[in-house]
Amino acid sequence: MTTFPNAPRILKGGLVLVDPQSARVQRIISLQYNPDSLTRNLQVQGTGGEEGNRSEAMRFKGPAVETLKLDAEIDASDQLEFPEQYRAVVENGIQPQLAMLESLVYPTSTQLLDRNAMAQSGTLEIAPMEAPLALFIWSKHRVVPVRVTEFSITEEAFDPSLNPIRARVSIGLRVLSVDDLGFAHKGGSLFMSYLQAKEQLAGKTQAGTFSTLGIGGL
């Protein structure tokens, strides 16, 4: 297959898993196709003071809580046309890709076995299992630490061995801020870089005027 030499390079969105202690990259997950839409919701974190409390009316308690929602498509139809080149797809369909995404919401089997061994040995307090730090990357301006909050898979087509060959994955994410991770955490510093990038982008917009609002001033 040939491409135009001057065609722009299309970047992929995806997720990167990082060791929360050493900051070592564990896995890079790029989406096969970029979603057509990315839904973002921001919940303002006000102080929640009593009505009429003037000292609290204009205060923030912390960064807005941002959530993301996207639908990603995975399709092996084109690859199945070249069975010699994509033998793993012929044998397994898209199950490896789905399993990789599902690892975002499971502790590892090793963690579960270690936890069971600790329980069997009579350990009084067992700390919750720690997941890798997940970073959602959507261009160089948006690299944010996230936690997966929703995950669903709709398998839409199968090969004769019932391996899925086309699926739609819906993923819900919650951006983790310095309120969640702290300023010293790797994810906290990445959130601050994300927030500062927002401020820099906002500074590139052209300022409005009172006349465009139909008033002469305040």
From TrEMBL:
Q: Which residues form the Contractile injection system tube protein N-terminal domain?
A: 25-173
InterPro entries attached to this UniProt entry: CIS_tube_prot_N
**Official protein name in the record:** Contractile injection system tube protein N-terminal domain-containing protein
Q: Which organism is it from?
A: Nitrosomonas nitrosa
Q: What is the lineage of its organism?
A: Bacteria, Pseudomonadati, Pseudomonadota, Betaproteobacteria, Nitrosomonadales
